[in-house]
Design a protein that fits this description.
759 residues, alpha+beta, Aldehyde Oxidoreductase, domain 4, 7-stranded mixed sheet, 5-stranded mixed sheet, 20 helices, 27 strands, 32% helix, disordered N terminus
């Protein structure tokens, strides 16, 4: 949710525009996509291909290749981006393919930075080239070629691929008009063909690709309106699926090089510890072992095979330095969080996140106040493909093979670690067997590069599942406290939320409901546990917190949870429409059998609005999820099947976290080591999931992340509806449901008149 509105200048927008304009002046001329196409041809264009602009190349066979600056990890973004480019180009979809952009500064995805910083802020057309040029320079400086934050379609697609496709089409039309000596306005395009209707002349794009490439791409090409789309919004087969079905797709772990060795390692169990000493003799004496390499905080064995290397690590007895965190545990960490929150309130040094009205004043005068504390643990990513990277060093040049969510960042991180120039590093990026934010970090390729440098041979480093589980960049653990105040009519008049997380994005804990007085504030709590982006980032924690507590507010107000949400969304028609659709499709008002319940949750994240309804049955202490219904408004679904798949995927990922996910700490180290103590939702536990899409025409939102936040609160709220037991701490598996419903502290349901659907 953003406080700015599309089509209006805001203070944030005005200030940002000034900074952007200043940045563009400092670097000179704004660089539009395609300005450096000639320089880039060596990286992406074969002999029989012409690079028309940075993102489009056309072969002599009339095949159009969309050059996509995003990684593939199962989300289908590369196909969706190719759809966007191809539609604006008027290409024949049967002659379209994609190529992942190389890890080069020119392919830094500036649109991601633009999307995150500017959101839906409107700028005059004359400022647009300056804005984009400045963001290109910024993303180059930050080495951002990142896939994450649901930014592929809504940022790169909207501001990059569509523009590139439209620009290439105009360039081709101009080239044909010059050759045929006719006005460009008389030439139409269709299915990768240029047509001059009055004379009947036509030519494939390939015929004029070279001539078109000589032009400077137009700064503001004309984009299609929604009703003109031919490929966007339609189901098309995903381009990446055939290779995954027939096995020809190569993931990072599939890479094999001549004379390559394999590496396994043991890292310091407590973050911050350093390697003090290690006896390498026993490991070095084992068959197939080539070398033992000592790193700052790890020790690796290089061998002929990975299993040989892994077995040899068991012979190492490394000694690690002591750290201040050696006696820390989950209990001490959460106790510190609570102390930080209490101290911040006492000293008045909370950091404001959002203020509307006077929440504390309203709480002080409220007839009734309810309070609750929620908390969630650290979570691992648990990608199916083990973390891995392959590195070869020859003649001062370094080549890297891996699956990365930020290959350009990897290029520079490896260069820094080796002490060489980034121009001497080539990164070959591969599809990933799961990313979820974990593969946006560079720890594994940097380690692989250092091990290869020390070994003098090409090395493939593969982390064991145990190393990955115990050395992840975890989703942060958070404690979140709430207060809500009610007037004499049981209307909620105040909402206060305090938590211990410096969250991203900023709006993650905000609620869309029209509560007149709101105060959201936080305090940063230091911990030795390293954290990183996790699917939906902090929306996954705060969605559970805010939507769980809002259900408590509805119960305290003696109102149906769906009805109260709807009542307080009068000024948010998109949110209300999504909520209504989910409730209708889930048959919200249908009678619940004894021991069954439904829970609803609404969360806006990454520009998309998602409502989730979970239907559960609790019997003999076990929770069964019967059905999940999801409604989503992402503005416009470029690939409807892909969006539905991402909603389903996000729900299942969030369901695993809600039911089972927990990383705990003992003596400073992570306790969980593999899937036996960090379980996943299995196929027989996976509920039927329905996805319903609203194309509202609003600014495009994301698809990869927004499906995840809603399932945890919907599940917890459904459990309460079924049992009267309130789940305020995850995972659900920690709770004991072996009780009689009438023995719980709260009654199952207050007498409530259910609303008419959509009324």
């Amino acid at each position: 949710m953003s406080d700015s509105k599309a089509g209006k200048w805001t203070r944030r927008g005005f200030i940002t525009a000034g900074v952007v304009a200043g940045g563009a002046l400092a670097v000179g001329v704004a660089v539009r996509p395609g300005r450096r196409a000639g320089d880039l041809a060596q990286h992406v264009a074969a002999e029989a291909e012409t690079l028309v602009n940075t993102w489009v190349k056309i072969g002599t066979d009339n095949v159009v290749t969309a050059i996509v600056p995003h990684s593939e990890m199962g989300q289908g973004a590369q196909t969706a981006l190719a759809q966007m480019l191809a539609d604006e180009l008027d290409a024949d979809w049967n002659l379209v393919q994609f190529l992942e952009a190389p890890a080069e500064d020119a392919y830094a995805n500036y649109a991601v930075g633009r999307g995150f910083i500017l959101g839906d802020t409107f700028y005059p057309e004359w400022l647009e080239p300056t804005v984009e040029g400045a963001f290109l320079q910024v993303t180059k400086a930050l080495h951002l070629q990142i896939t994450g934050g649901s930014a592929s379609v809504r940022a790169t697609g909207l501001h990059g691929m569509r523009v590139a496709g439209a620009a290439a089409r105009e360039m081709l039309v101009r080239a044909a008009a010059d050759a045929w000596q006719v006005p460009a306005s008389e030439i139409v395009t269709k299915d990768s063909t240029l047509i001059h209707q009055s004379s009947g002349r036509s030519a494939p794009y390939a015929e004029f690709a070279a001539a078109a490439a000589e032009f400077v791409p137009p700064s503001l090409p004309k984009l299609k309106t929604y009703d003109q789309f031919r490929i966007m919004g339609k189901h098309v087969p995903r381009i990446d699926i055939p290779g995954k079905v027939d096995g020809s797709t190569k993931f990072g772990i599939d890479v094999s090089l001549p004379d390559m060795k394999y590496a396994a390692l043991i890292a310091a169990p407590v973050l911050g510890a350093k390697l003090k000493s290690v006896d390498t003799a026993a490991a070095e004496a084992m068959p197939g072992v080539f070398k033992v390499v000592k790193l700052d905080d790890a020790v690796a064995v290089v061998a002929d095979g990975w299993w040989q290397a892994k077995q040899a690590t068991a012979q190492l007895q490394p000694r690690w330095s002591a750290t201040p965190a050696d006696e820390s545990s989950s209990e001490t960490i959460f106790a510190a969080f609570e102390n930080d929150l209490d101290r911040a309130v006492k000293n008045g040094d909370e950091e404001d996140d959002r203020r509307i009205g006077d929440a504390r004043g309203a709480l002080g005068s409220a007839r009734r106040v309810i309070e609750a504390t929620y908390r969630v643990p650290y979570l691992a990513h648990a990608c199916m493909e083990p973390m891995n990277a392959t590195v070869s060093l020859k003649g001062g040049e370094c080549e890297v093979w891996l699956g990365s969510q930020n290959p350009l960042g990897t290029k520079h991180a490896v260069a820094d670690a080796l002490g060489i120039d980034a121009a001497q590093v080539k990164v070959n990026n591969h599809p990933m067997g799961g990313g979820f934010g974990r593969r946006a970090t560079d720890d594994v390729p940097v380690q692989a590069a250092l091990i290869a440098q020390a070994s003098g041979v090409p090395v493939k480093l593969i982390w064991s599942r145990e190393e990955d589980m115990t050395h992840d960049h975890y989703r942060p653990a958070v404690v979140s406290k709430f207060k809500a105040g009610f007037d004499d009519g049981d209307n909620v008049i105040a909402w206060e939320n305090q938590f211990n997380d410096k969250h991203e994005p900023k709006e993650a804990p905000w609620i869309p409901y029209a509560v007149p007085n709101q105060f959201v504030h936080f305090v940063e709590s230091a911990t030795h546990v390293r954290f990183g982006p996790w699917r939906s980032v902090d929306h996954s924690q705060h969605g559970f917190f805010t939507e769980g507590f809002f259900d408590e507010v509805a119960f305290a107000a003696h109102k149906d949870p769906y009805a109260l949400r709807r009542e307080l969304l009068e000024d948010r028609p998109r949110h209300r429409a999504v909520l209504d659709l989910a409730a209708e499709k889930a048959r919200w008002n249908q009678e619940r059998p004894e021991g069954s319940g439904r829970g609803i949750a609404l969360q806006e994240s990454f520009g998309s609005i998602v409502a989730t309804v979970a239907d559960v049955t609790v019997t003999e202490g076990k929770v069964k999820i019967n059905r999940v219904v999801c409604a989503v408004d992402c503005g416009f679904a470029v690939a409807p099947d892909g969006l539905a798949a991402q909603m389903e995927s996000g729900i299942l990922y969030g369901l695993t976290a809600a039911l089972y996910g927990e990383i705990s700490i003992h003596k400073g180290a992570v306790v969980q080591t593999n899937f036996h103590d960090y379980p996943m939702v299995r196929m027989d536990e996976s509920p039927p999931i329905e996805v319903h899409i609203i194309n509202s025409g609003a600014v495009m939102g994301g698809g990869g992340e927004p499906g995840t936040p809603g399932i945890a609160p919907a599940l917890a709220n459904a459990i309460f509806d079924a049992t009267g037991y309130r789940v305020r701490e995850l995972p659900v598996s920690k709770h004991d449901f072996n009780f009689r419903i009438e023995e719980t502290e709260e009654p199952k349901r207050a007498p409530i008149t259910l609303p008419e659907m959509g009324a």
